[in-house]
Design brief:
Layout (H helix, E strand, L loop, with lengths): L11 E4 L4 H14 L6 H6 L6 E8 L5 E10 L2 E9 L8 H13 L5 E6 L4 H5 L5 E12 H8 L8 E4 L5 H15 L4 H9 L3 E7 L5 E10 L6 E8 L3 H16 L6 E7 L3 H6 L8 E8 L12 E3 L10
Parallel strand pairs: 4-5, 10-11
Antiparallel strand pairs: 1-2, 2-3, 3-4, 5-12, 6-11, 6-12, 7-8, 8-9, 9-10, 10-13
Helix pairs in contact: 5-8
């Protein structure tokens, strides 16, 4: 740790692509930092999504991870999901060198720059490249029993429940249609991988005409022994629909451990903030601040977003 003295940075090289070793060490470091916005599916997808760009600092001696900036380019934006250095090198100057290299690559694309920052770092980012605050994420953590008790307060919603693992091809295609309708973006590259992952489950409410009108997904977070799950997204019209969808996903968590815990993020400016947050009865903790280089048009239908489908490789949706 640097206590006011600049620590010696080992000989390193900045590279614009990640090796298997760099990506693995990057993923483990994110888990160590306990950033709940970054679930295991998101971490697994970052290295393979065609939209991913990166700058890594690797140690010359063995090619190991020293730091990175990782972002995704889509919809005329460059969304920076990860920017950090190894804990032993904090405040030692390496981060600024990696950042400068990333900006050298992003600025010529003329894309709007976005990032998700921990609250204590938000003022620093806002004073430089990303002055416009778009939203905040607040974290809630409930045990399975607490979530079951909460959902039990609401009547079961009408409609047919269909788990993603049991969906027909037509259902999955309609889910992509529904997601695009809610988020205002085409996210099939990301969503198809999410839905087919062995560490995720989802459930939809389907009307009499076979159309999806509400959806919830869940996936693992952190290390396996933590027994953490993240509920994301939840797109619904009422708290009863939220409860019906979520109740159907609790057994997926309980199969791993009866002591599993479920993380729910609340996105400011959404129905989740207006309706879910006041009644869920759980302490709130601001985890992330989303900043952009300029104002953007957020096409997300905030009136149905009880929990966003946020991750390091995709803007809140």
């Amino acid at each position: 740790i640097c206590f006011g003295v600049r620590m010696s940075i080992p000989p390193y090289t900045l590279v614009d692509e990640g090796s298997e070793l760099l990506w693995t060490q990057f993923q483990n470091q994110v888990r160590e930092m306990n950033w709940t916005s970054d679930d295991n599916i998101g971490l697994g997808l970052v290295p393979v999504l065609p939209t991913t760009r990166c700058v890594f600092a690797k140690k010359n001696e063995d090619g190991s991870f020293l730091g990175c900036v990782v972002w995704n380019e889509y919809d005329e934006m460059a969304f920076i999901g990860f920017y950090f250095v190894h804990p032993s090198l904090k405040k030692c100057g390496l981060g600024s060198k990696i950042w400068a290299r990333a900006m050298e690559r992003i600025h010529p694309t003329k894309r709007v720059i976005g990032l998700r920052a921990v609250p204590e770092m938000a003022p620093r980012y806002a004073s430089k490249d990303t002055p416009v605050e778009i939203s905040r994420l607040r974290k809630n953590v409930l045990t399975c029993s607490e979530m079951r008790e909460f959902c039990g307060r609401y009547p079961t919603s009408s409609g047919t429940l269909v788990l993603v693992s049991q969906m027909t091809k037509e259902h999955k295609e309609d889910l992509l249609r529904f997601d695009a309708e809610i988020t205002g973006r085409q996210r099939s590259d990301f969503l198809v991988r999410f839905l087919s992952s062995p560490i995720s489950e989802g459930v939809a409410l389907v009307n009499g005409e076979g159309k999806i009108y509400a959806f919830a997904g869940i996936t693992t977070f952190g290390f396996a022994e933590d027994h953490f799950f993240k509920l994301a997204p939840v797109y619904a019209s009422t708290l009863s629909e939220f409860a019906t969808l979520t109740s159907a996903l609790i057994p997926y968590c309980e199969k791993v451990s009866a002591n599993s815990r479920i993380i729910v993020h609340i996105l400011t400016g959404t129905v989740g903030e207006r309706e879910l947050e006041p009644v869920i009865g759980n302490p709130q903790h601001i985890e992330c601040v989303t900043l952009f280089s300029s104002k953007i048009e957020n096409k997300l239908n905030a009136n149905v977003c009880y929990a966003p489908h946020n991750s390091g490789c995709h803007f809140d949706g």
